[in-house]
Design brief:
By secondary structure, this protein is of the alpha/beta class. The protein has helices at 13-30, 46-54, 105-115, and strands spanning 7-11, 37-42, 61-71, 74-83, 93-101, 121-130, 141-147, 152-153, 169-172. The chain has three helices and nine strands; from the N terminus they run E-H-E-H-E-E-E-H-E-E-E-E. The strands form two sheets. A six-stranded mixed beta sheet has the order 4-3-2-5-6-7, sandwiched between helices. It has a three-stranded antiparallel beta sheet with strand order 1-9-8. Helix 2 (46-54) links the parallel strand 2 (37-42) and strand 3. The chain binds guanosine-5'-monophosphate (5GP) and magnesium ion (MG). Magnesium ion is lined by residues 41, 44-45, 98-99, 106.
Length: 173
Protein backbone atom coordinates (compact mmCIF):
# COMPACT_ATOMS: atom_id res chain seq x y z
CA UNK A 1 0.00 0.00 0.00
CA UNK A 2 1.10 3.57 -0.70
CA UNK A 3 2.70 5.40 2.25
CA UNK A 4 0.23 7.69 4.01
CA UNK A 5 1.69 10.81 5.70
CA UNK A 6 -1.14 10.82 8.28
CA UNK A 7 -0.16 7.43 9.67
CA UNK A 8 2.33 7.28 12.52
CA UNK A 9 3.64 3.84 13.48
CA UNK A 10 2.72 2.68 16.98
CA UNK A 11 3.32 -1.10 17.01
CA UNK A 12 5.30 -3.00 14.39
CA UNK A 13 4.24 -6.35 12.99
CA UNK A 14 6.97 -8.21 14.93
CA UNK A 15 6.03 -6.52 18.22
CA UNK A 16 2.39 -7.49 17.72
CA UNK A 17 3.24 -11.11 16.91
CA UNK A 18 5.51 -11.41 19.94
CA UNK A 19 2.80 -10.06 22.24
CA UNK A 20 0.12 -12.33 20.75
CA UNK A 21 2.31 -15.39 21.25
CA UNK A 22 2.65 -14.49 24.94
CA UNK A 23 -1.10 -13.97 25.28
CA UNK A 24 -1.72 -17.27 23.49
CA UNK A 25 0.63 -19.01 25.94
CA UNK A 26 -1.11 -17.69 29.03
CA UNK A 27 -4.58 -18.43 27.64
CA UNK A 28 -3.47 -21.98 26.77
CA UNK A 29 -2.06 -22.40 30.27
CA UNK A 30 -5.17 -21.04 31.99
CA UNK A 31 -7.54 -23.21 29.90
CA UNK A 32 -5.37 -26.32 29.88
CA UNK A 33 -7.59 -29.39 29.45
CA UNK A 34 -10.64 -27.28 28.49
CA UNK A 35 -12.15 -26.47 25.10
CA UNK A 36 -13.16 -22.79 25.30
CA UNK A 37 -15.25 -20.97 22.70
CA UNK A 38 -13.45 -17.92 21.34
CA UNK A 39 -15.84 -15.25 20.11
CA UNK A 40 -14.54 -12.81 17.51
CA UNK A 41 -16.13 -9.37 17.73
CA UNK A 42 -16.42 -8.26 14.09
CA UNK A 43 -15.22 -6.39 12.18
CA UNK A 44 -12.20 -4.94 13.96
CA UNK A 45 -10.94 -8.14 15.62
CA UNK A 46 -10.75 -10.36 12.57
CA UNK A 47 -6.98 -10.23 12.02
CA UNK A 48 -6.07 -10.30 15.70
CA UNK A 49 -8.49 -13.21 16.18
CA UNK A 50 -6.94 -15.22 13.34
CA UNK A 51 -3.46 -14.76 14.82
CA UNK A 52 -4.57 -15.37 18.41
CA UNK A 53 -6.35 -18.67 17.74
CA UNK A 54 -3.30 -19.91 15.83
CA UNK A 55 -1.09 -19.07 18.80
CA UNK A 56 -3.07 -21.39 21.11
CA UNK A 57 -1.71 -24.82 21.97
CA UNK A 58 -5.10 -26.03 23.28
CA UNK A 59 -8.22 -27.17 21.47
CA UNK A 60 -10.88 -24.50 20.95
CA UNK A 61 -14.07 -23.68 19.08
CA UNK A 62 -14.71 -20.35 17.39
CA UNK A 63 -17.71 -18.18 16.66
CA UNK A 64 -18.39 -14.65 15.42
CA UNK A 65 -20.64 -11.77 16.33
CA UNK A 66 -20.91 -8.25 15.02
CA UNK A 67 -21.61 -5.05 16.89
CA UNK A 68 -21.46 -1.46 15.76
CA UNK A 69 -21.32 1.88 17.55
CA UNK A 70 -18.75 3.96 15.71
CA UNK A 71 -19.16 6.44 12.89
CA UNK A 72 -15.84 7.81 11.66
CA UNK A 73 -13.72 8.59 14.70
CA UNK A 74 -16.59 8.96 17.18
CA UNK A 75 -18.71 6.47 19.06
CA UNK A 76 -22.44 7.02 18.78
CA UNK A 77 -22.75 5.51 22.27
CA UNK A 78 -25.53 3.21 21.06
CA UNK A 79 -24.44 -0.36 20.58
CA UNK A 80 -26.24 -2.45 18.01
CA UNK A 81 -25.89 -6.23 17.72
CA UNK A 82 -25.81 -6.76 13.97
CA UNK A 83 -25.00 -10.49 14.04
CA UNK A 84 -25.18 -12.97 16.92
CA UNK A 85 -23.17 -16.16 17.52
CA UNK A 86 -24.60 -19.54 16.52
CA UNK A 87 -23.00 -21.91 19.05
CA UNK A 88 -24.71 -22.84 22.30
CA UNK A 89 -22.62 -21.30 25.08
CA UNK A 90 -24.49 -22.85 28.02
CA UNK A 91 -21.96 -24.36 30.46
CA UNK A 92 -18.99 -23.38 28.28
CA UNK A 93 -15.89 -21.25 28.84
CA UNK A 94 -16.33 -18.13 26.69
CA UNK A 95 -13.45 -15.91 25.59
CA UNK A 96 -14.58 -12.66 23.95
CA UNK A 97 -11.93 -11.31 21.58
CA UNK A 98 -11.99 -7.54 21.03
CA UNK A 99 -9.80 -5.26 18.93
CA UNK A 100 -9.80 -2.28 21.29
CA UNK A 101 -11.55 -1.21 24.49
CA UNK A 102 -12.15 2.51 24.76
CA UNK A 103 -15.05 3.51 27.03
CA UNK A 104 -15.77 -0.14 27.79
CA UNK A 105 -19.39 0.19 26.65
CA UNK A 106 -19.16 -2.43 23.92
CA UNK A 107 -17.47 -4.99 26.10
CA UNK A 108 -19.91 -4.30 28.94
CA UNK A 109 -22.84 -4.75 26.54
CA UNK A 110 -21.40 -8.12 25.48
CA UNK A 111 -20.66 -9.20 29.06
CA UNK A 112 -24.25 -8.48 30.09
CA UNK A 113 -25.52 -10.56 27.15
CA UNK A 114 -23.27 -13.54 27.90
CA UNK A 115 -23.98 -13.41 31.64
CA UNK A 116 -27.62 -14.26 30.87
CA UNK A 117 -26.60 -17.39 28.96
CA UNK A 118 -25.18 -19.37 31.90
CA UNK A 119 -21.67 -19.76 30.58
CA UNK A 120 -19.15 -21.57 32.78
CA UNK A 121 -16.84 -18.53 32.62
CA UNK A 122 -16.44 -15.35 30.59
CA UNK A 123 -13.05 -13.86 29.74
CA UNK A 124 -12.09 -10.84 27.70
CA UNK A 125 -9.10 -10.62 25.40
CA UNK A 126 -8.34 -7.30 23.78
CA UNK A 127 -5.47 -6.37 21.54
CA UNK A 128 -5.54 -2.74 22.73
CA UNK A 129 -6.94 -0.88 25.71
CA UNK A 130 -7.17 2.88 25.93
CA UNK A 131 -6.42 4.51 29.24
CA UNK A 132 -9.80 5.93 30.06
CA UNK A 133 -11.65 7.45 32.95
CA UNK A 134 -14.79 5.42 32.18
CA UNK A 135 -13.30 2.08 33.02
CA UNK A 136 -15.48 -0.88 33.84
CA UNK A 137 -13.95 -3.42 36.15
CA UNK A 138 -13.16 -6.39 33.93
CA UNK A 139 -12.82 -9.98 35.03
CA UNK A 140 -10.41 -12.48 33.47
CA UNK A 141 -8.87 -9.87 31.24
CA UNK A 142 -5.96 -10.25 28.80
CA UNK A 143 -4.61 -7.02 27.29
CA UNK A 144 -2.17 -6.80 24.39
CA UNK A 145 -1.07 -3.17 24.70
CA UNK A 146 -2.27 -0.09 26.58
CA UNK A 147 -2.61 2.99 24.35
CA UNK A 148 -3.30 6.68 24.88
CA UNK A 149 -6.48 8.49 23.85
CA UNK A 150 -5.55 8.55 20.18
CA UNK A 151 -7.34 7.13 17.18
CA UNK A 152 -5.54 4.05 15.93
CA UNK A 153 -5.87 2.08 12.70
CA UNK A 154 -4.40 -0.97 11.02
CA UNK A 155 -4.21 -4.67 11.89
CA UNK A 156 -8.02 -4.93 11.55
CA UNK A 157 -8.85 -1.47 12.89
CA UNK A 158 -10.44 0.97 10.46
CA UNK A 159 -11.24 4.57 9.80
CA UNK A 160 -14.49 4.51 7.80
CA UNK A 161 -13.65 0.94 6.71
CA UNK A 162 -10.15 1.83 5.45
CA UNK A 163 -6.72 0.74 6.76
CA UNK A 164 -7.87 -2.65 8.10
CA UNK A 165 -5.39 -4.46 5.86
CA UNK A 166 -2.27 -2.77 7.29
CA UNK A 167 0.10 -5.21 9.02
CA UNK A 168 1.09 -2.79 11.80
CA UNK A 169 -0.85 -0.49 14.15
CA UNK A 170 -0.73 3.26 13.47
CA UNK A 171 -1.96 6.49 15.02
CA UNK A 172 -4.16 8.36 12.55
CA UNK A 173 -3.28 12.05 12.69
P1 LIG B 1 -15.98 1.30 23.42
O1 LIG B 1 -17.38 0.76 23.41
O2 LIG B 1 -15.06 0.55 24.36
O3 LIG B 1 -15.95 2.77 23.66
O4 LIG B 1 -15.43 1.17 21.96
C1 LIG B 1 -15.09 -0.04 21.47
C2 LIG B 1 -15.11 -0.08 19.96
O5 LIG B 1 -14.93 1.20 19.36
C3 LIG B 1 -13.95 -0.91 19.49
O6 LIG B 1 -14.31 -2.25 19.43
C4 LIG B 1 -13.64 -0.31 18.13
O7 LIG B 1 -14.42 -0.92 17.15
C5 LIG B 1 -14.02 1.15 18.27
N1 LIG B 1 -12.84 1.99 18.58
C6 LIG B 1 -12.53 2.57 19.76
N2 LIG B 1 -11.38 3.26 19.70
C7 LIG B 1 -10.92 3.09 18.44
C8 LIG B 1 -9.74 3.54 17.74
O8 LIG B 1 -8.85 4.23 18.26
N3 LIG B 1 -9.63 3.15 16.44
C9 LIG B 1 -10.56 2.40 15.81
N4 LIG B 1 -10.33 2.10 14.54
N5 LIG B 1 -11.68 1.94 16.43
C10 LIG B 1 -11.85 2.29 17.73
MG1 LIG C 1 -14.42 -3.88 18.42
Amino acid sequence: MKKNPNLEILFHKAQIQKRINKMGCSISKNFNGEIPILVCVLNGSFIFFADLVRSLSIDCEIDFLKVSSYQGRKTTGRIILEKDISLNVYGRHIIIVEDIIDSGKTVNFLLERFKKKNCLSISIVTMLKKSNKFNFPLINEYIGFEVKQEFVVGYGLDYNQRFRNLEAIYILN
